TrEMBL record:
<protein>
    <recommendedName>
        <fullName>FAD/NAD(P)-binding domain-containing protein</fullName>
    </recommendedName>
</protein>
<feature type="domain" description="FAD/NAD(P)-binding">
    <location>
        <begin position="6"/>
        <end position="308"/>
    </location>
</feature>
<dbReference type="InterPro" id="IPR036188">
    <property type="entry name" value="FAD/NAD-bd_sf"/>
</dbReference>
<dbReference type="GO" id="GO:0004174">
    <property type="term" value="F:electron-transferring-flavoprotein dehydrogenase activity"/>
</dbReference>
<dbReference type="Pfam" id="PF07992">
    <property type="entry name" value="Pyr_redox_2"/>
</dbReference>
<dbReference type="GO" id="GO:0005737">
    <property type="term" value="C:cytoplasm"/>
</dbReference>
<dbReference type="GO" id="GO:0050660">
    <property type="term" value="F:flavin adenine dinucleotide binding"/>
</dbReference>
<dbReference type="InterPro" id="IPR023753">
    <property type="entry name" value="FAD/NAD-binding_dom"/>
</dbReference>
Amino acid sequence: MSDTHNIVILGGSYAGLGVAHGLLKALPGLKTQTGKSYKVTMITNSTHFWFSVGAPRAMFMPYPKDIMDSFIPIEKGFKQYSSELFDFVHAEITGVETDKKTVLYKLKNEKEEVAPTTNNISFDSLVIATGSKSPSPLYSYQGSHVPTLDAYKDIQSRLSSVKSIMIVGGGTAGTETAGEIGHLHGKQTSSPKDITILSGHERLLKGLRPSIGQRAQEFLQGMGVKVEHNLQLTDSNDLGNGTTKVILSDGSTRTVDMLLVATGRKPASSYLPSSLLDDQGRVVCDAYTRVPSLKNVWVTGDMAQNSPGGIMYINFAVPVTVGNIVAELGGKGKVKEYKPLTTKETQFVPVGPNYGVGAAFGWWIPSAVVRMVKGKTMFFPNAMKTVMGTA
């Protein structure tokens, strides 16, 4: 029987990386305090971290310089730690046996092929951080980073030749995507295209006040993007000739050259026992990010029941999770509640590189500020920092 306390982290995106680095930096002090040994094992479907924050821009062009700037090898960030402290497992997670305290998984090779044999690993502490998933690889992992990389390549190879583009979804991702394509191929460019965004609701950016959504719409329309409301995509069919037939909620059909679906995000929790989930498929947790029905099991990121989603939540929730794990393992200090930085609307939404809308702590933010803070770089300087644990 090993004397090492095994901490298993499920997921290797923003939340999983943040927890892993936070714990690994704390382990030497924890070992001195308790006299015990600890090891962190990360199990993730993807060998590469995908900087999804920058997707609305990077899907259309190699950005900042190369298409692979969006996809960074995860193991690169963990070479700074001893192999006695950290292990990386590239695998498809197939289950969690809470009574046996084991995670079930199938290893994947460099071609992303899944082995037929199921393996298991025992845990003393478990952190669930597998995030969320949407229908399109442009807006979420589809198993690994490879489908997303392939989707980027497909778009970039076809973009110059297509004449019509439809973006489905008027949230942050859809609005930012429409802004980027409007900047590249709007009515004021040398290669204008027929660009349409379907908000799916009565306005864009439903999570922000109506005037902010209206301002985003005005920016898009100024670029020549058509903005349509109260229409949802009900189905689509690839016609095999480079076009797609879309069926809309009013019964109408259209044919477009490029369809980008930025809706339908759900928790990536299908491998977990239903007893741990709420009716939305998120993991039930308390204010301390613990799973209350189990000992030494934690959840953070989009999987957590108390998560509003987004990078801002992760940036503030991850340190709470790390601190609470260290406090409980060390037997010293008090666990802390996760409390949002603010409950007031706070969101920055670039509309192309030159415009933007948003709010912070309930205050309206001018376009120029959104442009400087996010729109100018889409936070890409943080991509490598996230992998290295220095963001």
